Amino acid sequence: MKDKAGSSSLIAFVVVLIVLALQRLFELRLSRRNEAHMQAQGGREHDSGHFRWMKLLHASWFVAMLAEAWWLRRPFKPLLAAVAFVTFLAGQSLRYAAIRTLGPRWSVRIMTLPGAPPVDRGIYRYLRHPNYLGVVLEIAAVPLLHGAYLTSILFSLANSLLLRVRIAAEEQALDDCRQYTAVFARRPRLIPGWERQH
Fold this sequence. Notes:
mainly alpha; Four Helix Bundle (Hemerythrin (Met), subunit A); 2 strands; 67% helix; 2% strand
């Protein structure tokens, strides 16, 4: 009976990962459409060298958590899964609030429109990078839906290193084109009221 319950929870976990992977593919398609729209208006891409590392990290994350849950037989723990699911929903909410607020200016690549002011409404009234906070929460939480704690820890660390590069490159590009720093100087990058503001 215990093995049957474990198999059922693992199948449910795989289904969640498939849905999440399809969601990511949809987002890439939306991003490409938005990039084309911005390029048609004179937009340009900045510092794309790290983008392949982002794609590699996210693809590896899917493989790693599935492998850990499956081959290392991580047990399903309802309380941990419940906390992870709430955290995952918070991450989804932040990411889609950012996508909705940015509209056709949202992209997974660093794109700017010369002369366009920074987006200073919606979720961006409180955070500089709500999308990245959402990604941080998701990378940590999704593996824990089925006890894959090694994936959660290792990929959270790798993501934090990559985000340091990504955020610095993005803020530089935005400031060069739209005086971004002056507008967002008093807002935290990721966590309101906690991190040191610049």
